[in-house]
Each structure stands twice: as structure tokens, then as C-alpha cells.
Amino acid sequence: MRGIALAVAGLLVCSAAAQAQQATIKSVSGEAEMKAAPSTAFVAATVGAKLKSGDYIMTGFDSSVVLAFEDNSEVTVSQLTQLRIDEFLKAENRAKTQLYLRVGTVQAKVKHTAAVRSDFSVVTPTCTASVRGSEERVSFLPGFGTTVEYLEGLGVAQDARGQTVLLRANDTAKVSHAGSMSTPGDVAQSVVVTDLSPAGSETGERNASMGFNRLAVRPDSDPTNPNSIVGRVGSDSNRSILIFRYELLPSTNGSPTTAR
Amino acid sequence: MRSGRGILRYAFLAIVLGGVGVAPAHGQSSFFREVVLKPRASQADGVRMVSILLSRRTGDLESDTEFLKNQSIMPRDWKPDANAQLSKGWASYLLVRALGVRGGVGARVMGWTKRRAYQELVNLQIMPAKGGEHAKLTGPEVITLLDRSSGYRARERARNSTEVAKTGGKKPEGKSE
């Protein structure tokens, strides 16, 4: 009984910590439809309508929709696009948004503020594109694959094989239908073989990041440190294979520190 | 006063219409919803796609076919079949004519064939290059074709209007649009 009570309390704490958010349809041009998650019926999309996790939005020919998210991100859904909101959560100073682009083109403008850090990504069948306080355009057209263009700021694109690249403004990454990426960007995520302390150890993560990638990292006191282990591929008694995720920080001359 | 049978008829209609849902009957929206799920597109989908490109938002196979034949886009002797799979060559032929693509020397001298049309659209990056003109299109690829075709048309219009502006209002020679 006590265990159940603890579990319920834990769930309440979790739900309070990470709350599901809604996106609002800011404008509609032409024909657009939306589908609320449990329903199977599409209805006409109207200005002011709310979308939550699991909902679909679809645009017709020569049509577009602008979605406004509560973390001040804005997404323009272009013509002939089918998009699903996979995740939209807000927890304390972080907002996580994940969109699934089934077909078509979206342009996302993500704003970081001091109060809220946005973790914004667009997933297609062949690629995942993350936006870090910048503007990107992602299109997935079957037969041609995914194209990720960064119009402003920095971002990261990862193909279906796990290859990850860093993209700057005006960089474009193309991921073929088969899942291989071609891009001018730098590798921004690494699979590292190391003998670090277990995942979750802040010191270990930081040392590894610095040792393997010579990155500038934020000081311990910074609560918004985004560097973390995002996956553990395997380990034995002496070694662990870890996947690190990190954010690039501006170097002293103003240009971003690269991963190499 | 209405008869009981009449009231029943209205009640039945209300149930049927209610069952359809509140979604309005968007001709093109229902087409996009369905075609994206199809592993193989049909010739009817190809006809609908080209009709939408030419701003014909609603229609069935018969009326769309007649429309395309009247526009001299589809040859008179073609009989689109709703059950026949849509080949890349078949769709390409309709698209080059709908877009007013002039093509190379071969197309200009001997006219369009499905093969020539397919190769031209691959060159213009409208058609995915994988397979030949006999390869079949999937439903999602039909959406790709429509998106890329409208992009091509927009670029051509912008280019032509720029050239018209440069030539002082005269339409540049050799332009199809």
C-alpha cells in the first residue's frame, strides 16, 4: 500500500515537473485539416484551434498553416505537408518539442530565452533535425529524402544511421531516401569508447567531452549545462561505449567551437 | 404533416451524414489523406494530381480526364484506369505537358514520349531518378511530384516575369509560358 502511494506521489511530481503543452494555430491559408489524437476524423483547421501531442495537421495544395508554441517557437507548415506533434512538454526551464514530418516541408523558428531553453526537433523517416535557438527548414519528399537547411544560428542533423552533423546558417544537409547524409557540417556527436565512471556522472561526462572532443563546457554551477550522456551502447568490466551530446559554445573570437 | 416514412428517411440521412463526421468534403484534402497511404498509386491518382496542379480542386476520374483532354494535355486515345498502377513515364508525360516544358531537341523535333518526358523530369529534379519510365510510383511520391512541379512552375513564372521586365514588357522569344 505504501509503495502504491509512493508511486502515485511520484507520478504526481513527474506530471507537475513536465507538463504537456499545446500549440495554437496562428494562421491558415488555403485548405488545412487537423486531427485530434483519439479521433480518426479530420476536421478543417481554424485559427485559434489547439493542438497537443499526437495530433496531426495537414495542408492542401497552395496552402499553409502557422503554429505558435508556448515556448515562443513558431512553425510554418508549407503546402502538401502532413505533420504530427509527437511531444510538447515543458518542465521548469526546459521545453521539449518533437514534430514528426510524414511528408512535406516545415520551417521552424525557435527562440531561446534566459527563462526557458527549447529542445526542438523535427523527425522525418530518414533524419532528425534539432534546432538550437535558430531557424531551420526541413523537407521530406519521398523519392528525394530529407533536406535540412539552417537559415539562422546553429543546429544538428542526424541521419538514420546515426551520423550526426553540426550545421551553421546557410548550411544544408541532405539525407537520401536510403538514409545516408551528405553535408558540409562538422561531427557534433560522437560514439566514444572510454573507461569512464557510469552514466550520469557529471565529472566523467565533462572529462570525456573535453578529452575526446576538446570542447568548451560550462562550469559546474551552470544549471543549464546541456552536456550529457544520451545513450549507452554497451559496456564490459573495463570499458563503456557512450554517446555524448553537447552544445557548442562560442569561443573567444566569437565563432563557435567546433567538435574537432 | 410529414409521413412517418419521410421522417425516417431524414433521420437515416442525418445518421449517415453525422457518421461521416464534421469534416467538410474537401476534394483535394481527402485525396491527399488517402494517396499518402498507398504503396502503389493508380492512374486515377495521376490524373487527379495533374488536375490539382492546374487548379482544378475537385473532380472525379471521368471529369478530370475530360478536362485534361480538352486542355490538350492528355492524348485523346488514353483511357485512364482507376485500377491500373501509375508508372513514372505515364505521369511524366502528363506533367511535362501541364507544365509547358519544352525539353531538348528530341522532344522539340519528334514530340514527347513517356521515356523522354521521364528523363526530362529527372533532369529538372521533379521526378525521383530511381527506376525507369516503367517503374511504378508510390502514393507519397505523387505528393512529391505535385510539390516539385508547383515549385518548378513558380520558378519559371518568376524567371519569365523578370525577363519580360528586362525586355520592356515584350515576352521573351521561345518561352512556353
Overall description:
The complex is a heterodimer of chains A (260) and B (177). In chain A, a hairpin with a 2-residue loop joins strand 11 (117-124) and strand 12. Chain A starts with a helix and ends in a 15-residue tail after the last strand. Mean pLDDT of chain A is 70; it is low at 6-16 and 185-260. The longest helix of chain A has 16 residues, at 2-17. By secondary structure, chain A is mostly beta strands. Chain A has helices spanning 2-17, 202-213, and strands spanning 19-20, 23-29, 32-35, 43-44, 50-51, 56-59, 64-69, 74-77, 82-91, 94-109, 117-124, 127-141, 145-159, 164-167, 172-175, 181-182, 186-187, 190-194, 228-235, 240-245. Chain A is built from two helices and 20 strands. Chain B is mostly helical and 177 residues long. Chain B has one domain. Helices cover 58% and strands 0% of the residues of chain B. Chain B contains eight helices and no strands. Chain B has helices spanning 4-20, 27-35, 43-53, 61-70, 88-99, 105-110, 114-123, 139-166. In chain B, helix 3 crosses helix 4.
Task: List its salient traits.
A: 260 residues; 17-stranded mixed beta sheet; 3-stranded antiparallel beta sheet; disordered C terminus; B: 177 residues; mainly alpha; 0% strand
Compute the separation of the termini of chain B in Å: 61 Å
Number of strands of chain A: 20
The total count of helices of chain B amounts to: 8
Largest sheet: number of strands, sense, barrel closure of chain B: none
Please compute the radius of gyration of chain A using only Cα atoms. Answer: 20 Å
Task: Categorize the overall geometry of chain B.
Answer: globular
Low-confidence stretches of chain B at least 5 residues in length (pLDDT < 50)?
A: 10-26
* Count of helical regions of chain A: 2
> How much helix, percentage-wise, in residues of chain B?
55-70%
Kindly report the greatest chain-chain contact and the residue count on each side: A-B, 22 and 26 residues
Coarse shape of chain A: globular
**How far apart lie the N and C ends of chain A?**
54 Å
**Topology pattern of chain A, helix = H, strand = E:** HEEEEEEEEEEEEEEEEEEHEE
- Profile the largest sheet of chain A: 17 strands, mixed
Average predicted local confidence, pLDDT of chain A: 70
Q: Class by helix and strand content of chain A? A: mainly beta
